[in-house]
Design a protein that fits this description.
Two copies of one chain form a homodimer.
Chain A: H1 2-13, H2 29-36, E1 39-45, H3 54-68, E2 73-78, H4 89-94, E3 100-103, H5 127-136, H6 139-148, E4 152-159, E5 166-168, E6 182-184, H7 187-195, E7 199-201, H8 208-213, E8 219-220, H9 225-231, E9 239-242, E10 251-257, H10 258-263, H11 266-301, E11 305-308, H12 311-329, H13 333-354, H14 357-363
Parallel strand pairs in A: 1-2, 1-3, 6-7, 6-8, 9-11
Antiparallel strand pairs in A: 3-10, 4-10, 5-8, 5-9
């Protein structure tokens, strides 16, 4: 069955003729032929084509894999909607329509609520702690177990760093200011807002600006200054709030169909894996290096008012977030398992942060 | 000349026969032969063999390169002293005695003071900001320019995260408590201590414990709880101070002899580079995941007293550190160039940290 499936899969996805082989006549042929075989893969993504940093991360992944494999693993990257819709990525890779996908795991909460722990949960990890949990704290094994149920192999392949809290047209001085607030905020952040009495609405990326400008929505979150500046939100909203309590270090993912993965020789497997590490640290570095210049432009040129959520609001949101995430964890055994591991690691890394990264952040004021 | 040099180098380092080729008789031979050629390299390191996390980082680098290259680039790793002394690594790679090295750039301050900016300077970057500066803020280009003068290509290949401030047998309540203090603290940290009236002494790793236990030194820094616990310092000193103001995110390096680098085909170059990214993020994740358990053991089992340097002491050390680093920058044009780039990026990332990582560190208390 398995061999048959594999053969069908190979036929389906178009992995066919070995790249070379003709003209080689020796006992070394089989090994060389295997090593020199060329794989042509497709990667579908949840991003607009070449979307800054996020889509670029997918492009880079393909480029680095191509370079490292000497052209033996060629991956064509498709923007959301070019081959399958952005939110069709998971199914397309799971079913083997394409070999690879790129997105963020919380998009697949409908497949399994547990996926959200591997992208962002409100008041969750920053990038450094998410990486430590995944790579060295057992998180990756749980993610692999979860995705294996969908015939997928997951990789962490990028991070946005701490995001912004969003754009508002009125000040948020107390939790009561969230009551009735119509805000574009997807996922668990939206559920938290709903618990606070607000209206979390879904608006596609291309329509947010118009909705905000016309007052259809009162507020929106997006990513951070680099992306938000391009969206022009400063023309439609006065206040830019921080921190992004709902996305404190969102992990981006690459995923590979497990049958396709199993057809790869070991060297190509190692190459794909290393490329995701490179992409992970590259993307965070880009965000860290480029966000501040955009923030300065928003403040200095466009006169945006930068504001911090008051402590009482963050405290209220944290309490509600805990309830929301507990509900996710109660949904099924995999979610419980992921959350238990997450909580254990969070306790551990919080203690460590207290005497390392936290005092580091204070040194700049001395 | 250049071709001749390369041929001599190839002969010298023993890169000779292509791995395969016999038995292949076709027009495809030259390309395949080049692709299948096996390189046997040596990597010398500044660490004891397989030293936890740091030496393991070198081992992993070699392992991942081997896996990704399908055995075409084999690197044998040598601990410090096995082939060349730990502090002979730079010269050995620079001169082409071996192809690759692994250490930390501040060990080479005697070659060029500018090297220190690429490992750690007092009150410098944490790991995330160092990466952002190097990968996306122009730092790597300066490092490459600096090392090219020594026929070397550098890579950032690991990070310790924020280190500890060290082990003390008396409390440090004021800057005056540093006067006359005999402390094992190398490099720029030592120069800062000397400016504060202390005695910075050099003690090899294997002799620190005995020196501390016998009162030959009053204090020592090392790395962090995971390594310090193994060294048994808790048996010889009462107080464990934080934060490690002198090493807030020490970068580890891999370096390759430029002639050896230039013999590699493009795919192997890309493989070596990706392996350093993987090693970089792997090492930091290990530190972040494992330090706290060791810290708990130090506190709960060995009753170590964890103490934070008072603000007045950190403020005094920061002032002296600024003087010391300015002196480094004044040493030569490359140091000036590195420091100017460092300062510009630090201003940028500090502003960004204020509304992202800094408030993130406060959320745990809500």
């Amino acid at each position: 069955m398995e061999n048959n499936d594999r053969r069908k899969f190979i036929k389906k996805v178009g992995i066919g003729a070995a790249a070379i082989g003709a003209g080689i006549a020796s006992s070394a042929v089989p090994a060389i032929a295997k090593k020199q075989k060329t794989y042509n893969w497709k990667m579908v993504t949840t991003w607009p084509p070449h979307f800054p940093m996020l889509g670029e991360g997918a492009d880079n992944l393909a480029k680095w894999i191509d370079e490292m494999s000497g052209g033996r693993l060629k991956i064509t990257v498709y923007g959301g909607g070019e081959l399958v819709p952005p939110l069709g990525v998971f199914d397309a890779v799971s079913q083997g329509t394409v070999e690879m996908g790129h997105g963020a795991a919380y998009y697949w909460a409908g497949k399994s609520p547990a996926t959200q722990f591997f992208a962002a949960v409100p008041f969750g990890f920053n990038a450094q702690s998410l990486n430590a949990w995944l790579y060295s704290g057992g998180g990756m094994k749980i993610w692999e177990e979860l995705y294996a149920k969908f015939n997928l192999k997951p990789f962490i392949a990028g991070n946005t760093g701490v995001q912004m809290g969003g754009w508002f047209n009125k000040k948020i001085d107390a939790m009561s200011d969230l009551k009735g607030l119509k805000m574009r905020i997807p996922g668990l952040g939206g559920k938290v807002l709903a618990k606070a009495g607000g209206n979390a609405v879904l608006v596609a990326g291309g329509e947010i600006y118009t909705n905000l400008d016309r007052g259809v929505i009162d507020a929106t979150e997006w990513v951070g200054p680099y992306h938000d500046l391009k969206m022009g939100f400063y023309k439609a909203a006065k206040y830019y709030y921080y921190p992004g309590w709902h996305e404190l270090g969102t992990g981006l993912e690459a995923m590979v169909n497990l049958n396709a993965w199993n057809t790869l020789p070991d060297d190509l497997k190692a190459i794909v894996e290393a490329a995701t590490y490179r992409s992970n640290i590259w993307m965070l570095s880009e965000f860290e290096a480029k966000n501040n210049a955009a923030l300065r432009e928003l403040i200095d040129v466009h006169k945006v008012q930068l504001k911090k959520f008051p402590e009482a609001v963050l405290k209220g949101l944290k309490k509600l977030s805990k309830e929301v995430v507990e509900e996710v964890a109660a949904a099924d055994p995999m979610s419980r398992k992921a959350y238990d591991s997450f909580l254990k690691f969070q306790k551990n890394v919080y203690e460590w942060n207290k005497i390392t990264e936290e005092p580091y952040q204070q040194l700049k004021y001395l």
